[in-house]
Amino acid sequence: MSSNFRDIDSKITKKYTVIYLLIILVIATLLRVLFLGTIPNGFFCDEASNAYDSYSILNTLKDQHGAFLPFFTRSIDDYREALFIYLGIPFIKLFGLNEFAARLPAAFTGILTVLVIYYLVKELFDNKTALIASFLFEDMKYFTDSIHYTSITGDLILDKIFSRAQNSKYSNFATLVDSSTMPENLRQIRYNRERWIQDNSQVYHWVENLKD
Predict the structure, then answer these.
(1) Confidence of residue 137 (pLDDT cuts 50, 70, 90)
(2) Nearest partner of 28 among 134, 123, 116, 104, judged by Cα
(3) 175 is a domain residue
(4) Which residues pair with 74 in a beta bridge?
(5) Considering the domain boundaries, does residue 58 fall inside one?
(6) Cα angle: 111, vertex 116, 122; to 5 degrees
(7) Helices 45-60 & 99-124, crossing angle to 10 degrees?
(8) What would the pLDDT profile of 148-201 be if each residue is shown by its tens digit?
(9) Where in the sequence is the domain holding 73, given as residue range(s)?
């Protein structure tokens, strides 16, 4: 009899887990998809380049520079892995070449990551902790803001450039590089590099052997 009750309780728990997880995913979707085509206002050049590459490959099997099904796509004088470009193709096909479709792959991966977090935490801990973790993750300010533009980050950059808010809790945000600070920054980078090699000599020599 007690075994039957445990089976019933397990089924109820699984049922409510699915309901809670669906609610969390709906919230995550709304946070990421609502007004996606209009917020932020304007269209960043990287977004436009990625979307046009997806559109071009969809229609010609070549990116905007004529490369056939590339592994790396050329953007504005840099090269990046093409996975994100290929991920955008079905969205461009469904919704056309516009801001909403261009931003949807990032929103989609953000929503999917909530689900990944749930199953990862469930594997490491338990079901209740997994639900809490996935809910907190979908509401993480700086994660959702990586899909949309965040004025907080913009203000931090401007504060650093114009030497404002030096006594704030974000005073150590980033490093301003100019002609006066570059030599010291380069010395620090070289020092950190040598220090890392000393602390990780086996890894360093292993990588060097791979290069040979």
Answers:
(1) low
(2) 134
(3) no
(4) 79
(5) yes
(6) 135
(7) 100
(8) 455 666 676 667 666 655 555 555 556 666 677 778 878 888 888 888 888 888
(9) 2-161
Whether residue 192 sits in one domain with residue 96: no
Q: How far apart are CA 43 and CA 64, in angstroms?
A: 18
Same domain assignment for residues 141 and 38: yes
Q: What is the pTM of this model?
A: 0.58
One domain for residues 16 and 97: yes
Query: Is the same domain home to 123 and 195?
Result: no
Q: What is the mean pLDDT of the chain?
A: 78
Query: Can you say whether residue 35 is alpha, beta or left, with left for phi > 0 and alpha for psi between -120 and 50 degrees?
Result: left
The C-alpha atoms of residue 122 and residue 116 are separated, in whole angstroms, by 10
Q: How far apart are CA 140 and CA 150, in angstroms?
A: 13
pLDDT at 8: 43
Positive or negative: CA dihedral 43, 44, 45, 51? negative
Which pLDDT tens digit goes with each residue over 83-120? 999 999 999 999 999 999 999 998 898 888 888 888 88
Q: Do 123 and 27 belong together in one domain? A: yes
